[in-house]
Specification:
This protein has 294 residues and is mainly alpha-helical. It folds into three domains: 56 residues, no CATH class; 58 residues, no CATH class; 143 residues, hpI Integrase, Chain A (Orthogonal Bundle), CATH 1.10.443. Helix content is 54%, strand content 10%. The chain is built from twelve helices and five strands. It has a three-stranded antiparallel sheet. Strands 4-5 form a two-stranded antiparallel sheet. Strand 2 and strand 3 form a beta hairpin. Helix 2 runs antiparallel to helix 3, helix 2 crosses helix 4 and helix 11 crosses helix 12. The protein is globular.
């Protein structure tokens, strides 16, 4: 069965399913007329590829690493950040097994199970063992105190990284949204980034704008660099159990404590809904409630 569809880039693709296997190829055109003309020949090419793959794979099952490689390169209509997360989780699982951190462990289990389900549907494997514990994650509620923020923003030795941390806190942006900014991303009073829910605008307050303005070159950091550098600094400063993402959580909580509505905070954080924001901050706000009597 073949289906023709257009992606967000306006390029037409042809997807063909045969004997439980699916293969998708770009037709390289934005014209529906041209796409329809190219589709029959492309369908034949895809079917030949699927037939050849079926013969080769009928001889023996693929191991998990081989399945994961195919799963990650297949067309799933994932957002770029989703693909990046799955690559990270599956590669780490292959190299080191399940992680100890409860939340990362649960995310890894869900990703491994999804990969195995897909591999079975594609007939790369006959069966698999469903891993349990995909829902056993812990909601992290760590926020930084005023004293800890002051330490980070005054005693960090690397001035550029200190500015980067302050910029992250003043915007509430995710590390992945600001690690590789370009001047073209900076608009009037905001920056345009690619977040978990797609492209979004991050508001720049006066403090964030000052951090941008003082940079001769914008930051070009990798995910590992930010994580390791932050851990090194907090360890040196004696700040316990802190992660870079805690800056974002602290940003949201402090705005709510100042009286900003949960709706506005949700928009600033780029959450998909206010309910998501409430789920993240409900445990934190409970402990902030003043003493009361009935």
């Amino acid at each position: 069965m073949a289906s023709l569809y257009k992606k967000a880039s306006d390029i037409y693709y042809l997807s063909v399913k045969f004997q439980g296997k699916r293969m998708t190829r770009s037709l390289g055109t934005r014209s529906i007329k041209t796409a329809r003309e190219l589709a029959p020949d492309m369908e034949k090419t895809i079917l030949l590829s699927l037939l050849g793959a079926n013969r080769e794979e009928a001889k023996k099952e693929l191991n998990f690493k081989q399945c994961a490689e195919r799963y990650l390169t297949e067309e799933h209509n994932w957002k770029p950040i989703t693909r990046q997360r799955y690559v990270y989780l599956l590669n780490n699982y292959i190299a080191y097994g399940l992680p100890r951190n409860p939340t990362t462990r649960a995310m890894t289990i869900r990703t491994v199970n999804a990969c195995n389900r897909w591999s079975k549907q594609q007939r790369y494997i006959k069966s698999y063992t469903h891993l349990k514990g995909g829902a056993n994650f812990e909601m992290r509620t760590r926020v930084l105190s005023e004293h800890e923020l002051t330490l980070l923003f005054t005693a960090t030795r690397d001035e550029r990284f200190k500015d980067f941390m302050r910029f992250a806190y003043y915007t509430g942006a995710r590390s992945g949204e600001i690690r590789s900014l370009t001047r073209e991303n900076i608009k009037n009073g905001h920056i345009v980034v690619n977040g978990k829910t797609g492209e979004r605008m991050v508001k720049l307050n006066r403090q964030a704008q000052e951090m941008i303005d003082k940079q001769s070159e914008l930051w070009r950091y990798s995910k590992d660099f930010v994580s390791h550098k932050f851990k090194k600094e907090v360890r040196r400063l004696g700040i316990k159990n802190a992660r870079f993402h805690d800056l974002r959580r602290t940003f949201g909580l402090n705005l709510i404590k100042q009286g900003m509505s949960i709706y506005k905070v949700s928009k600033l954080l780029g959450h998909s809904s206010v309910r998501t924001t409430e789920q993240h901050y409900a445990p934190l706000l409970t402990v902030e409630i003043e003493d009361f009597e009935l």
